[in-house]
């Protein structure tokens, strides 16, 4: 216990008060905590964060009592760090790269509109925060012939300047700041890089191109939500080279709308689904049938459902490979007692006389007619069932033909949904077909929630990870009720980052009852085992959370009433193939969060069996600690003794084979 006495007797270390006990440190005594088999299986209820388990009865009731802490793993990546919640003072003087959605801008060529102002809010906010802003974007070169604003990078920079009321300086040539003279930035606040579509590395998500693009930038802000489904260097690759990757204001707002699609708190919930290509959309349709309390198929998709229900449908309207998928969806609907609706009549074009149109029964003979849009009887049916639902999703076109003049049905559907939105019904419109039809008819702002990019939504509903969102830093989405987690939440807090199997914290919590202990671990299975072990643990001064502490540390720890007194990082996995990855857990964002939240004289304990890993972690903390962290005493050339008298599992393994451990202690001044 020599090392323990050395550290704990220090007047600068108030965070631990050892409890006198005859029980020695025996890791083996905890082996019974980590039960497998059916006990562990019961706990795997799609939980991403942890919950406190004190007894068997509490385990059984945990899902009901702690709904706040349950996160669906399939959508947990959607909880991202946003510019809105990033400390403004950390933006001043930083080089911030913004991925702008030019498609949104170019859709508003001409006078500035409210929606355009919203898209540019991110850049204006950064400029006001005195950040050095770089804009990267891309635009289709086919627009150049009709729109002089995008004829060249110079004209596009001038176009942006007119909206921002700030001079935008174009940088020709390759990406990055290598060709830009830094002294010019004193006079000019915003830089615009060349059209990214001119570089192959953009679409290929080239690592070299991403690194060049990010050169000189420290913070990345993605405000191009419409590209979330693509893997690009400017939305995915660049995040590897910036210490913080955030969602811009426009991106954050669109993401919030996307999440609302799968929010089923507003029931009954019906989806009006249109468009074509049933087979490609089948995974998304299966998702909707599991979420909604009713589905109304329109457009070409309705023919596949009608065929599956045994109705006569002309062969030219059937996707042969999609019949089995349609039957499966119908079966799921029957199992869940979910009604499926389809058009009762259609507006059709006469094949012999293109100028003739008429209304035809959808179950009747369509020979000689081409379906164009849903008919009046169908609209009456929709209008009659809408009041039965509290939430409505409309995604996909109602039309069977792309001709603009045959959009009567879609326009009238927009009117029906607009009225529903004013009757306390939540209405979500997805895609240009839905959004534009409504706006064209109403001519005013709507209470409906709009998402113009249908491709992103379809990919999301298919259950696929959206790369542009997944690449951003994550935040912890819920507030932990610390008064429930800990017996006394005001006690000093000790956080172990990468807590692994929890043996270190279990023993620390037993020995030092005058502190609270929190383990942050990415591996959910390990956290579940630790939680099951806590069912046998009497004291309430220990808690585990499954999370990526690198980006969520601040949001979790800042909400705890107890002051942060100690942070430990022990033996992060080294990557010997890539030198820059040897201490990848310790990034600038984590270091700054620790330095900000640590109390004065609070400590950071770093340990590894690989000396280069320890040196890398130590360098990161001293470099990005804003001068608040110093080496605490003499670490004996990184060969100091363990100051706690409690060894981690890996530490015991290393020492048992006679290898050295490298340690250092830092202190906040």
Automatic annotation (TrEMBL):
UniProt KW keywords: ATP-binding, Kinase, Magnesium, Methyltransferase, Nucleotide-binding, S-adenosyl-L-methionine, Transferase, tRNA processing
An annotated Gene Ontology molecular function: phosphoglycerate kinase activity
SUPFAM superfamilies named in the record: Phosphoglycerate kinase, S-adenosyl-L-methionine-dependent methyltransferases
Keyword Methyltransferase: yes
Cofactor annotation: Mg(2+)
Pfam families to which the protein is assigned, alphabetical: Methyltransf_4, PGK
Enzyme class of the recorded protein, top EC level: transferase
The enzyme's E.C. designation: 2.7.2.3
Catalytic reaction equation(s): guanosine(46) in tRNA + S-adenosyl-L-methionine = N(7)-methylguanosine(46) in tRNA + S-adenosyl-L-homocysteine; (2R)-3-phosphoglycerate + ATP = (2R)-3-phospho-glyceroyl phosphate + ADP
Family annotation (Gene3D superfamilies): Phosphoglycerate kinase, N-terminal domain (3.40.50.1260), Vaccinia Virus protein VP39 (3.40.50.150)
Keyword Kinase: yes
Family: Belongs to the phosphoglycerate kinase family.
Known partners and oligomeric status: Monomer.
Protein name, UniProt field: Phosphoglycerate kinase
Protein's organism: Urochloa decumbens
């Amino acid at each position: 216990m020599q090392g323990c006495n050395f550290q704990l007797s220090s007047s600068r270390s108030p965070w631990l008060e050892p409890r006198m006990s005859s029980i020695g440190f025996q890791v083996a005594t905890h082996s019974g905590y980590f039960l497998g088999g059916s006990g562990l299986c019961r706990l795997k209820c799609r939980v991403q964060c942890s919950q406190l388990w004190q007894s068997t009865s509490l385990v059984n009731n945990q899902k009901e009592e702690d709904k706040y802490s349950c996160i669906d793993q399939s959508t947990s990546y959607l909880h991202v760090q946003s510019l809105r919640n990033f400390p403004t003072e950390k933006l001043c003087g930083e080089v911030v790269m913004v991925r702008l959605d030019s498609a949104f801008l170019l859709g508003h060529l001409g006078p500035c509109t409210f929606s355009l102002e919203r898209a540019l809010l991110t850049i204006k906010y950064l400029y006001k925060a005195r950040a050095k802003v770089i804009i990267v974007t891309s635009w289709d070169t086919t627009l150049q012939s009709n729109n002089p604003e995008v004829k060249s990078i110079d004209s596009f920079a001038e176009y942006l300047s007119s909206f921002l009321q700030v001079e935008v300086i174009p940088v020709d040539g390759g990406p990055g700041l290598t060709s830009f003279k830094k002294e010019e930035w004193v006079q000019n606040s915003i830089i615009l890089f060349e059209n990214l579509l001119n570089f192959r590395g953009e679409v290929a998500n080239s690592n070299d191109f991403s690194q060049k693009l990010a050169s000189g930038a420290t913070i990345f802000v993605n405000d191009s939500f419409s590209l979330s489904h693509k893997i690009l260097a400017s939305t995915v690759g660049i995040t590897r080279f910036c210490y913080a990757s955030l969602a811009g204001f426009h991106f954050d707002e669109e993401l919030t709308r996307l999440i609302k699609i799968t929010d089923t708190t507003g029931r009954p919930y019906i989806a009006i689904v249109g468009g074509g290509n049933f087979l490609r959309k089948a995974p998304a349709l299966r998702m909707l049938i599991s979420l909604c309390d009713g589905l109304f198929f329109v457009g070409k998709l309705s023919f596949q459902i009608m065929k599956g229900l045994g109705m006569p449908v002309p062969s030219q309207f059937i996707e042969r490979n999609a019949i089995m998928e349609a039957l499966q969806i119908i079966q799921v609907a029957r199992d869940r007692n979910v009604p499926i609706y389809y058009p009762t009549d259609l507006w059709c074009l006469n094949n012999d006389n293109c100028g003739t149109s008429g209304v035809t029964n959808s179950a009747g003979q369509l020979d000689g007619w081409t379906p164009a849009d849903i008919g009046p009887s169908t609209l009456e049916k929709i209008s009659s069932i809408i009041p039965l639902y509290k939430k409505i999703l409309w995604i996909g076109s109602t039309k069977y033909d792309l001709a603009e003049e045959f959009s009567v049905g879609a326009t009238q559907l927009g009117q029906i949904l607009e009225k529903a939105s004013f009757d306390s019904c939540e209405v979500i419109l997805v895609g240009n077909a839905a959004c534009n039809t409504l706006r064209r008819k109403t001519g005013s702002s709507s209470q409906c929630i709009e998402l113009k990019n249908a491709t992103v939504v379809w990919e999301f509903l298919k259950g696929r990870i959206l790369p542009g969102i997944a690449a951003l830093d994550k935040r912890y989405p819920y507030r932990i009720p610390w008064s429930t987690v800990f017996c006394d939440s005001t006690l000093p807090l000790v956080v172990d980052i990468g807590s692994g199997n929890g043996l270190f914290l279990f023993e620390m919590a037993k020995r030092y009852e005058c502190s609270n202990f929190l383990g942050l671990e990415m591996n959910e299975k390990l956290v579940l085992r630790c939680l099951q072990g806590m069912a046998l643990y009497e004291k309430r001064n220990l808690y585990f959370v499954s999370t990526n502490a690198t980006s969520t540390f601040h949001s979790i720890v800042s909400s705890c009433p107890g002051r942060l007194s100690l942070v430990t990082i022990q033996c992060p996995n080294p990557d010997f193939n890539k030198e820059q990855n040897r201490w990848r857990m310790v990034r600038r964002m984590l270091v700054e969060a620790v330095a900000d939240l640590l109390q004065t004289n609070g400590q950071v304990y770093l340990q590894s069996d690989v000396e280069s890993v320890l040196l890398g972690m130590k360098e990161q903390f001293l470099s990005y600690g804003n001068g608040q962290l110093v080496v605490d005493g003499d670490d004996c050339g990184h060969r100091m003794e363990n100051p706690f008298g409690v060894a981690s599992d890996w530490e015991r393994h290393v020492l048992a084979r006679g290898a050295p451990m490298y340690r250092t202690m830092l202190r906040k001044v």
